[in-house]
Amino acid sequence: MIQTADQLLKERVRQWREAADTLRSVRDEDTRATSTAKALRFFRGSVLAALASHPPRPWSGLVEQQRCFGKLRRT
Questions:
Q1: CA–CA separation, 13 and 57 (whole Å)
Q2: Distance between CA 17 and CA 37 in Å, rounded?
Q3: Model confidence over 5-43: pLDDT tens digits?
Q4: Are 11 and 3 in contact (CB under 8 A)?
């Protein structure tokens, strides 16, 4: 049976909706089972390697962040 693009899209949306609860449960269980300390150890090497070519800036970026938040509050 040949389906139109609209029919395929609707079917894909239906499939994602059907899977949403299961995917949410898997995500939540993965989050509960994750060890923050273990994750930090895992990524430590990558961060240290990146620092060689991308050293930290002398500012934190908080001032720029607050400026962006201020713009959002005004709109």
A1: 43
A2: 34
A3: 999 999 999 999 999 999 999 999 999 999 999 988 999
A4: yes
Which residue's entry shows tokens 């989050």? 31
End-to-end CA distance of the chain: 50
Q: What is the pLDDT of residue 33?
A: 94
Domain ranges of the chain: 5-74
- Which is it for the CA torsion 48, 51, 57, 62, positive or negative? negative
Q: Residue 20: its pLDDT value, please?
A: 97
**Joined tokens for residue 56:** 């930290």
Closest CA to 40 of 48, 52, 32, 28: 48
pTM: 0.46
